[in-house]
Inverse folding.
């Protein structure tokens, strides 16, 4: 069922429950997710990103399979779950996925800075 565009490794580890959760998340994005998605979609930064992509029991806000880069927008709830986020990032790194965390406030107040940080990470 691989259409040539998906990383088969990523596809094979998606859990059915997370697929439906990811669909729900795509239907109800935060304002910051909407703003950033408008810049990332359609190869906006030169690589393909997926939004709300399920992987290994997690749902990644934005994911580039080509770069193996997850971009996570961290809102206020992440202040209370730093330990979980660190554990999650470690789990993803075991699959060679880099995680870039961008504060939600930065996306809303200084989109150019947020995009610059993502561009810099894409060039690594």
């Amino acid at each position: 069922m691989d259409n040539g565009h998906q990383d088969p490794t990523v596809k094979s580890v998606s859990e059915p429950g997370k697929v439906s959760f990811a669909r729900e998340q795509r239907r109800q994005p935060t304002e910051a997710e909407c703003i950033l998605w408008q810049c990332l979609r359609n190869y906006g930064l030169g690589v393909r990103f997926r939004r709300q992509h399920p992987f290994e029991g997690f749902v990644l806000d934005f994911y580039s399979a080509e770069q193996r880069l997850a971009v996570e927008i961290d809102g206020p709830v992440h202040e209370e779950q730093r330990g979980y986020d660190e554990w999650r990032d470690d789990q993803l790194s075991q699959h060679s996925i880099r995680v870039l965390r961008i504060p939600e406030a930065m996306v809303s107040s200084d989109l150019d800075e947020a995009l610059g940080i993502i561009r810099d990470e894409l060039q690594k």
Residues 30 and 95 are 27 Å apart (CA to CA).
